[in-house]
Amino acid sequence: MNELERALNDGPALDAGAATRAQDAFAERAQAEGLVDVAYTTVESPIGDLLLATTERGLVRLSWIEPGLELDSLLGQLAGKISPRVLESPVRLDGVRRQLDEYFGGARKEFDLAVDFTLSHGFYRRALRSLERVPFGELTTYRAVATSAGNERAVRAAGNAVGSNPTPIVVPCHRVVRTGGALGGYGGGLDRKRFLLELEGSLAA
Amino acid sequence: MSMSELPPFQALLDQHRDDVFRFLVASVGRQEAEDCLQETLLAALRAYPRLRDASNLRAWMLTIAHRKALDSHRARRRRPVPAEEIPARVAPQAADPAARDGEPSLWRAVRALSEKRRAAVLCRFAGDLSYAQIGAAMGISEDAARRNVHDGLKQLRGAWQG
What we know:
The complex is a heterodimer of chains A (about 200) and B (about 160).
Chain A: H1 3-10, H2 16-32, E1 38-43, E2 50-54, E3 59-64, H3 71-81, E4 86-88, H4 94-104, H5 122-130, E5 140-141, H6 142-148, H7 155-163, E6 176-177, H8 190-199
Parallel strand pairs in A: 1-4, 5-6
Antiparallel strand pairs in A: 1-2, 2-3
Helix pairs in contact in A: 5-7, 6-7
Chain B: H1 9-28, H2 30-47, H3 57-78, H4 97-100, H5 104-112, H6 115-124, H7 131-138, H8 142-159
């Protein structure tokens, strides 16, 4: 390759500021035209970095970002299961972020957020929706969740449903414990479950 | 190819935005490139869920950028006043970025090429597309793409003093 071809190959100097400005303007227009099916952002929290993702209908995914749950693979799942029109858009999640901050700061006991249950189906969805009625500071059991979801004998399935919760914290699966009081499991690990229950005063610190 | 194989659109932005922008700056100049990038990304996002072949998303985005650059060149030709005489709308540094590299003549010469030669040369070098991909992007044969690149380079060699 000669010098001319190399210069052409390198292209003009990149003005990253101009490119970012154009991308921001694009993102604004894409939002206004309703082209962003899944908007997401990442935030820090006392229990680790979180992915927040929303559709037009509401919060659709909240996840810890950690080894085994990398951001790329979380976003890839959303692209495959909901729509590939996935765009980073912190503004669309300002409300969620503010309410999470208030919750972790002890100033909020109830989330006033729309949740999109698209990622859960049937018994799982009914089980998760039943958790919306379990208030801050109270606990329920896997058996009670199974009963609310319409099958009191499906205790193990209720456990799986609770464990697969696409929007933990906001849909409070951490408030589900075993009959008899043992903590049971938690998708995000027992340390996080303990942290949340201590925050809510359900577990002695 | 099923929809589930399309990566999140944000990943395309993260991976290819800078290449697409460089391609556009080379093709239409700094002043028009920002608008062209906006239009390219919007067109890409609109079409994305219907995309059948996700095997070369970079080439796909550059093909869209190529069409937006053509639109821009054609709109500029229709305007009564040459773009060069319109006061810079953006910032003081809105001058041709190539000028800051000490090689303004190259990008001016590129923009002075005929539509086909310019597009072919930029797709080949700034875009790094194969001749087959260039042909597909421009709606011409692979041979015609190769010829346009060759003729464009020849013309540039005369205009550019390395």
